[in-house]
Design goal:
With 423 residues, this protein is α/β, with parallel strands linked by helices. The protein has two domains: 208 residues, UDP-n-acetylglucosamine1-carboxyvinyl-transferase, Chain (Alpha-beta prism), CATH 3.65.10.10; 198 residues, Enolpyruvate transferase domain (UDP-n-acetylglucosamine1-carboxyvinyl-transferase, Chain). Helix content is 32%, strand content 27%. Strands 17, 18, 19, 20 and 21 form a five-stranded mixed sheet that branches. Strand 5, helix 3 and strand 6 form a beta-alpha-beta unit. It is globular. 52% of the residues are buried. It binds shikimate-3-phosphate and phosphoenolpyruvate (PEP). The site of shikimate-3-phosphate has 11 residues, from helix 7. Shikimate-3-phosphate binds next to helix 7.
Length: 423
């Protein structure tokens, strides 16, 4: 049923990319790391569980985590498989770390991870000296990795992927000589920023990142800002639900992640900023969104890696914008938790959207009146949240199958949505 308005202030949960990295880097650092604002979503809990199996002492109490690391050489052979659940970031970054451990580990995950390509990281890691075996020549789980004796390489990555860049840089941390990665477009730079916070020296020059081997990380304190990828659902909800004003507190504003703000601005959304801190290692600020008249736009090129996870909710915004929206260069969506081009198009069509898939994106004509339907998340958290926001403006009832998937990145999503709609 259509919601009358969304009004109020919320603090979205901690950034998923930063929460994963804080636990991982704390686990291979020397000494104590404390984390505040940790995301308690299932993906980040999978990362904690894997490092506990590698012998790291990690205590998690809600958003506070303490990690006692003993360096990479302090990691111990796991007595069981490392289960990464639904998390691509966990498996790909861990492979980079495990390239430096002289024992064998086996990495597995859920049905979605079983379909996702791993050769994007296993190929360069094998070149660096890691022994990796798995289904489809090391492309699919379960993956067996034995590390040690890593040699630095230069890698020209065919895709703009922070997971690929991070896996190689993490492998290079203990490797011999210099390791560098050049990517075609700049991807999120949380690894580079956080390695510096842990005392390492990382060089970034345009599209190339490099690191010298033999650096020891030192435990530190990490403050995790709110996840802009989670805030995105309420930015779009605030723009498309009538009579709404939503304040989102302490949202991460790292420029490699703010593509959604640029696109919503182009579409005519009324977003204002307060309490911005640009000095923090990860900048953040409060965002205020009001109901807005949106217009169609073209989204392509170097903004794509800066909003890749936000495309499902941007597609919904486009159904409520006057004119045509074209999304290009987003082929990567086909290898996320689901094929997000297919799932977005098929599910939004059920609600009456005028949306067509292209090979590397979609074309959406607006503005359309959405109607309630029986839809499904396909076990993909971002599809589930996008469809829930769609139901807020749809005429009639919507039922969402597999809604529990939202807990992967946003366990408090439905509670916060309810709170904003009741105020
Ligand atoms: O490094 C990260 O934390 C992430 C990188 C992105 O994936 P790719 O590296 O595959 O683009 C993103 O889609 C994912 O949600 C998180
Ligand atoms: C693609 C995502 O995550 P991951 O690759 O870590 O599974 C996501 O959160 O949208």
């Amino acid at each position: 049923m259509p919601i009358q308005s969304l009004y109020g202030t919320i603090k979205v949960p901690g950034d998923k990319s930063i929460s994963h990295r804080a636990v991982m880097f704390g686990s291979i650092a020397e000494g104590k790391t404390t984390i505040n604002g940790f995301l308690t979503g299932e993906d980040c809990l999978s990362t904690i569980s894997c490092f506990k199996k590698l012998g790291v002492n990690i205590v998690q109490e809600n958003e506070h985590v303490t990690v006692k690391g003993n360096g990479i050489s302090g990691l111990r052979p796991p007595s069981e498989d490392l289960y990464v659940g639904n998390s691509g970031t966990t498996i790909r970054l861990m492979l980079g770390i495990l390239a430096n451990t002289p024992f064998t580990s086996v990495l597995t995950g859920d049905d979605s991870i079983a379909k996702r390509p791993m050769n994007r990281v296993t190929k360069p890691l094998k070149q660096m000296g890691a022994e990796i075996n798995g289904n489809d020549s090391g492309n699919k789980i379960p993956l067996q990795i034995k590390g040690g004796n890593v040699k630095g390489i230069h890698y020209d990555s065919p895709i703009a992927s922070a997971q690929v860049k991070s896996a190689i840089i993490l492998a290079g941390l203990e490797g011999e000589g210099t390791t560098s990665v050049t990517e075609p477009l700049k991807s999120r730079d949380h690894t580079e920023r956080m390695l510096e916070a842990f005392g390492a020296e990382v060089k970034s020059d345009a599209l190339t990142v490099s690191i010298e081997g033999g650096q020891q990380l030192k435990g530190t304190h990490i403050e995790v800002p709110g996840d802009i990828s989670s805030a995105a659902f309420f930015l779009v909800a605030g723009a498309i639900v009538p009579d709404s004003t939503i304040t989102l507190q302490k949202v991460g504003l790292n420029p490699t992640r703010t593509g959604i703000l640029d696109v919503l601005n182009d579409m005519g959304a009324e977003i204002s900023y307060q309490n911005v801190n640009e000095e923090a290692s990860e900048p953040y600020g409060d965002l205020i969104i009001k109901t807005s008249s949106l217009k169609g736009t073209v989204i392509k090129g170097d903004v794509i890696p800066r909003l890749i996870d936000e495309i499902p909710i941007i597609a919904l915004a486009a159904t409520q914008a006057e004119g045509q929206t074209v999304i290009q260069d987003a082929h990567e969506l086909r290898v996320k938790e689901t094929d997000r081009i297919e799932t977005v198009v098929n599910e939004l069509k059920k609600m009456g959207a005028e949306i067509e898939a292209t090979e590397d994106g979609m074309i959406i004509n607006g503005k359309t009146h959405l109607k309630g339907a029986s839809v499904q998340s396909h076990g993909d958290h971002r599809i589930g949240m996008m469809l829930s926001i769609a139901s807020c403006i749809a005429e009639g009832d919507t039922t969402l199958d597999q809604s529990e998937a939202v807990a992967v990145s946003y366990p408090s999503f439905f509670d916060q949505l309810k709170r904003l709609s009741n105020q």
